[in-house]
Amino acid sequence: MEKLNEEDISKLKNAINLQKNDSDEEALSILWDLYKRNSENGKVIGLLGLILAKTGQRAKAIPYLEKAITISPRSELVSMSLYNSYVEIEKYDIAFNVIFEYLKLYPADLYLTTLEELLEGLLKGYGTTYKDKIIFHAKKNKVPIPNELQ
Fold it and tell me: Rounded distance, CA 48 to CA 28, Å?
């Protein structure tokens, strides 16, 4: 991953603080500038994608989130934002692939709630194509499986 210089680290921290205070447009302005100089830095790319997704620009966020997850595959937050972005634009097969690829390699933390929601969806008849994988990853991550699915 590309290293940031001291000035860029300071700008990235500023963008993070702006985003935390819901000053997303200001944060994006800083991040676009950082991205011009640091197009291979996973933190810059990931935060850019996260804020684009947060501001409803999911389709625009996806290429940045894809690139960030390639550079930093352990980032569950980026993976989850990518998953949610694909769900938002109704690309469910790709969304399920995102979650399963992450969970195949790493334990769930943020994804625990998502796994619970997917199990609830199965009970209602949603996502049944992925039933076996959902149950497998739920068990692997110690998410309780409803009796109706066992």
Answer: 7
* Host H or E run for residue 143: none
- Kindly state the tokens that stand for 117: 């929601």
pLDDT confidence of residue 2: 76
Question: Measured between alpha carbons, how far is 59 from 42 in angstroms, rounded to an integer?
Answer: 19
Tokens 């049944």 found at? 128
Residues 6+ apart with CB under 8 A from 141: 103, 107, 108, 111, 112, 115
Q: Is 45 exposed, middle or buried (0-12, 13-18, 19+ CB in 10 A)?
A: buried
* DSSP annotation of 148: G
Name the residue type at position 32. Answer: W
Whether 1 shows a pLDDT value over 90: the answer reads no
Backbone angles phi, psi at 96, to 5 degrees: -65, -40
DSSP string computed for 68-132: HHHH-TT-HHHHHHHHHHHHHTT-HHHHHHHHHHHHHHS--STHHHHHHHHHHHHHTT-SGGGHH
Q: What is the mean pLDDT of residues 72-99?
A: 95
